[in-house]
Structures are given as structure tokens and as C-alpha cells.
């Protein structure tokens, strides 16, 4: 491989002709949500987390010598003959970036970085029937060591509240004792 680099095309001409960049794709996905949720994503920093995770997933799927820089794919001008072995190619034998990246799904990335309130965690994640599901969720988050990633105003009341990343909450709840397959029964 040489030290000289070249452009392998832009996001628009190699991946999505109706989008200028992966960041624009993220905005297209979240623009379907209500305005309070979009504002919360922006103010809490969750939008930046979504963009970063999406870009990291893209760069991880690319061959090691190619990177997405802004909206442009940059890689070696003179790649070795076997440099792209194992990666999808087009009918001319050139690297097919769209095929390489087709398995990356933005929806789960957005879901993992969705800010959840204690009330939402109690009602929807823990399925609490308590009159105060936020208190149940607060105790559970403390017990499982899940920290709030943002403290901000409630959109309706304006009172300060804690927000947790949905992916961290769900991972902690799945890892708690008593969850999952019972292997002790299989041994009997």
C-alpha cells in the first residue's frame, strides 16, 4: 500500500443519493419524532452520541485502509491486490461501499441512545404497577449502578429530572439476577 490517498467517493454518490452525509441520515430518522423529543436529543447530547456511534459503525465496517472523513471516503490511491479481499465488490471488481455498509441499521443506534426518564423506565422497562414508578426506577438504577447521563428540565413542568440512556438501562436490566435461561434445569 502506498502513502498516497484518494477519494473513493462521497456519501451522496456511493451510499445514498438523497442524503449529503451520515449526519443528515440521522436527522432524517429523528425528524419523525415529536419536537420535545428532538429538542431533548439535541440538548442532552444524545444526538451527538447517535451521530458518533453511527459513524463508528460505518468506519468499523469499512476496510481498515478506508475511512469516512466528513462525507467523503478516503483510502489508498494504489491499494495492494489483496487489500479488499473479503469485502463486497461491484461488477467491475471495485470496492462496493454501499454493499459493505448495507447491514448497518441506524434504528437500533437511535434506540440505544434514547434518553429515558425515571418515570418511563418504571412504567415501560420495569413494568411497575406502582403509583410512583419513578421511585421504583430510581431505586433500580441505583442498585444496578446505572448513572444518569443528563440532568435537564421536564418538557411539561420545567422541573429538573434525570435522563438515562435506554441502551444502558436495558443492558443493566438484562444482566440482573434471575434473568435469562435457567441452565441449572438443563443439567438435571
Describe this protein's structure.
- The model has no long low-confidence stretch (mean pLDDT 91).
- The protein is α+β, with helices and mostly antiparallel strands.
- The protein contains ten helices and six strands; from the N terminus they run βααααββααβααββαα.
- Helix 4 runs antiparallel to helix 6 (106-112) and helix 7 (118-125) packs across helix 8 (133-144).
- 22% of the residues are buried.
- The chain starts with a strand and ends with a helix.
Strand content: 5-15%
Summarize the helix and strand pattern as letters.
Answer: EHHHHEEHHEHHEEHH
Most strands sheet: 3 strands, antiparallel
> Mean pLDDT across all residues, rounded?
91
